[in-house]
Structure prediction request, 615 residues.
Amino acid sequence: MRKIASFCDEVVALVRSGHQAISVQTVEEKRFLDDLNAITPRLSGGPPWRVITWDWINGYSDGSDDGTKMAGNLTEAFLAIPTDRFNVPDGMSDVIASKPGVVTGIHVINAVNTAIVLNNDEKHPILLSGYVGPVVKVGDSVTPGQVVGKVHSNHVLFVFKDVNLVLNENGAGMAERRAFRNLVETTALSNSEAMRPVIFLGTSPINHADLAASITVVKYSLPTVEDLGKTVDYIASAVEGGGEIRPDFKRKIVDAMRGFSLVEAENTLALIGYASEGFHYGEKQEEEEETLVSAIYKRKRDRWSNEAGIELMDSAKLGNFNEIGGYDLFKTWIRKRKYCLTDAAKSLGVPEMKGTILGGLPGTGKSVIATIVAKELGLPLVELKFSAMFGSLLGESEARMRDALAKITALGPCVVRVDEADKAMTGIKGSADNDGGVSKRLLGEFLSWQANTNKDAFVVMTLNDLKSLSPEQVRTGRFDRVWFVDLPSDEEREEIFRIHLRKRGYDPEVVLSKSEYVSLAGTTRGASGSDIEAIVKEAMLDALAESEGKAMHITYDHLIGIARGHKNSAKVAGESLDNIRDMFEGRAYPVSSYTGGGTTEKPRAKSTRAVSIKN
Prediction:
């Protein structure tokens, strides 16, 4: 069984298995063509294949050098794929080195005569005809008589740029789509005599329904950590005043750039390298280096703000566990997960974290604590918004989801928040009637990624209605544990009052006494955290009005007066409160060790009845 572990492996497999057309989505043409030229020797056991590119300006060009135009370009007729123009002429021979040395450069010349090596010492790089492909690379040592270039086979990879702009158009591209289908269906591109598969290269895939069976769509992977590390070294050496960067600082820069394309990384580094005068700092080195890394994240947030359905949150604005009451069992569970991120854990074979589900009553802080998890784990936070994925064009929604998940994968270790997932998934069971099955396919894309592809992201999904997810959707391998968030207990409500007073500049121990907190907690049974926040805010306004806008000296009387008249969550929810509790009991762990559920009607689910998905 051949292993397909990378994008290059996938392209080799598709070409060698006879696929006639491939659509590749990327903004990085140069990096893609470099990779494509590098894998041509793997496409057959014989001579390397040629790579021929086509674009609207230059027509046909040599794929190893887009500046080398070929005679007889037809820029208006991109489907006029020649069957003989690129055959290797008679008389061509392999190229051998004439002198020993280190290869300093490889240049392709657009000539039809037999290619030769003039020299390959430091002054003269290797010169090859366009009909000969190199079998050495820059930096290799060669000896006299060594083969450095082999005559290309008659097999050719055609790379067409930006043709997706035509083929995806419903009206304008109709004739072109029909012509291309004819080529594919008659196996005119790849057959027993010659293989000339076509790769369509563009910023969006070719996804028109007419070509769904004719073209295989693949997504070009974003740069690896190694690619980004080389970019850091290159920019650091090229920028004015630059030089070698400390390894630990370089690692932080690379981590911050994960999820960038190579062009985005180069542009960001060039600007920041210039601003920092070559990545060098004075006495406040640690502080200034942190500022630089934060600047990279800001540029990434700005860039992702234009992307549909994904947002990189500002870690400086995230809170901590001290800013939310209750959740003691959940907080302990998350803190233990910190150790899964260490190198020691990886070397010991500790399985990666997958994610968790926080379900339960509205207004109990699920969304807030989902963001705080990222701060506690020391990871970037990404918001994934299902509702923002939907597009008007066929396949657009699914493409947006794949793009977002590719960015998250490239980002490396991070926390992904999927907030109010039950609302996003409402109607999925009947989505075939409502939206052509788009909602169901989006969920399928996400869950497949979560189970099979996701290695570094910790997903925190919040919801109110657990029935929106079937048992197989929360099975082992997708989420580690399901949690139930009930209304806060008396002790937790006291804590929440203190937190909201402190957040607004009050000293909780000065404003109220212990007995007054106990009284407030008793009065607000059935209130959620958001209810308590609303009570504090309204009490502040009463205090402000009482002083005729001069001060806000909040007192117990202000708070208890508002609390007595407040319509809390338990009153509003009514019978649905018990229904929600019944839904989670036996399927979820309680987030808190306190019992009572904040009401006298029914205690919260006991942990002895909860079922863990995976410890």
User: Anything to note?
Assistant: The two ends are 33 Å apart (CA to CA).
